[in-house]
């Protein structure tokens, strides 16, 4: 009897040990399944989040770009009625006097753009049937505390040294408010650049200029003068390697109103000194000379900055 009791006791101990082992293995499998389930959930959340971010980037509305342009220009340049995305979109180009101004002038037609990654930056291609010479390219390269924007010009013709970029009606300037809305200029603004283009670098809030550009104001007229035509003028912008800024030179190509002057664009902003004179009938230009600058006898002194 004692022998059978001992055998029964051994069997019970073995059965109990097996039960404990099975319970441990089951608990380990349950923990492993829960960890796998948690990892799957995390992957699903991250996948959904990355997908949402990608969708926002791909389908970011053109209004976002319009908002950035308005902020960057202090509200003077607006992309109104923006459509599409920041990558492919269009808008109406408007000049205004800034915040609180009631003045605004829009160009005819729609400005269209295409934005694409290019190297370490972006390539912005812009088209505007009314005013641009084909497709104009801006190459934008952001950096650590800096931003580089290069204007790539289109040749006027093969082998030409001049690069014609765009031409705008001078009436568009009236959108900027005073004094342009008073002058009510007629004529055209024509922008060109050398083959190297124009490069603007913003480093720690300071603008550096490389290359150059030329703005010609052709066949100018004004409601403040009885003359049908005041003349044509040229404003040259040239990068200054020594200062990192740029120099400005204003000259008269022809006409009854003679304009001249020079200045600099640098860390302290724009500084310009020039003068306006009448070549011919002073009475026909008197009102205009009073608006352009400070009268000093027969001339009008222009001072900016």
- What is the general shape? elongated
How many separate domains make up the residues? 3
Q: How many alpha or pi helices?
A: 4
Please identify the structural class as seen in this structure.
Answer: alpha+beta
Could you tell me the strand content as a percent range? 35-45%
Share in helix:
25-40%
Give a structural overview.
This protein has four helices and 17 strands. The protein has about 300 residues and is α+β, with helices and mostly antiparallel strands. It has three domains: about 1-60; about 60-115, no CATH class; about 130-305, no CATH class. The termini are far apart.
Structure keywords:
305 residues; alpha+beta; 17-stranded antiparallel beta sheet; 4 helices; 45% strand; elongated
Protein topology:
Layout: H1 2-58, H2 62-72, E1 77-84, E2 88-96, E3 104-106, E4 111-118, E5 121-127, E6 135-143, E7 146-152, E8 163-169, H3 180-183, E9 185-193, E10 198-203, E11 206-222, E12 231-239, E13 246-254, E14 257-266, E15 269-278, H4 286-292, E16 294-296, E17 299-304
Antiparallel strand pairs: 1-2, 2-3, 2-4, 4-5, 5-6, 6-7, 7-10, 8-9, 9-11, 10-11, 11-12, 12-13, 13-14, 14-15, 15-17, 16-17
């Amino acid at each position: 009897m004692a022998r059978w009791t001992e055998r029964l006791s051994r069997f019970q101990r073995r059965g109990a040990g097996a039960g404990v082992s099975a319970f441990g293995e089951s608990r380990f499998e349950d923990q492993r399944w829960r960890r796998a389930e948690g990892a799957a959930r995390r992957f699903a959340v991250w996948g959904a989040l990355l997908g949402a971010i990608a969708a926002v980037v791909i389908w970011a509305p053109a209004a976002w770009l319009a908002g950035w342009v308005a902020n960057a220009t202090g509200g003077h340049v607006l992309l109104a009625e923006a459509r599409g995305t920041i990558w492919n979109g269009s808008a109406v180009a408007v000049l205004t006097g800034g915040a609180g101004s009631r003045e605004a002038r829009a160009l005819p037609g729609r400005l269209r753009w295409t934005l694409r990654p290019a190297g370490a930056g972006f390539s912005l291609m812009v088209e505007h049937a009314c005013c641009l010479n084909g497709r104009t390219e801006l190459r934008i390269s952001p950096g650590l505390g800096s931003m580089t924007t290069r204007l790539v010009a289109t040749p006027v013709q093969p082998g030409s040294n001049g690069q014609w970029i765009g031409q705008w009606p001078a009436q568009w300037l009236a959108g900027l408010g005073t004094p342009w809305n008073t002058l009510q200029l007629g004529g055209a603004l024509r922008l060109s650049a050398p083959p190297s283009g124009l490069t603007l670098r913003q480093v720690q809030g300071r603008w550096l200029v490389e290359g150059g550009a030329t703005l010609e104001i052709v066949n100018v007229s004004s409601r403040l003068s009885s003359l049908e035509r005041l003349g044509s003028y040229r404003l040259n912008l040239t990068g200054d390697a020594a200062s990192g800024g740029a120099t400005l030179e204003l000259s008269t190509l022809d006409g009854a109103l003679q304009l001249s002057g020079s200045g600099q664009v640098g860390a302290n902003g724009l500084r310009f000194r020039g003068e306006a004179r009448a070549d011919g009938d002073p009475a026909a230009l008197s009102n205009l000379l009073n608006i352009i600058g400070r009268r000093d006898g027969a001339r009008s002194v222009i001072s900016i900055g």
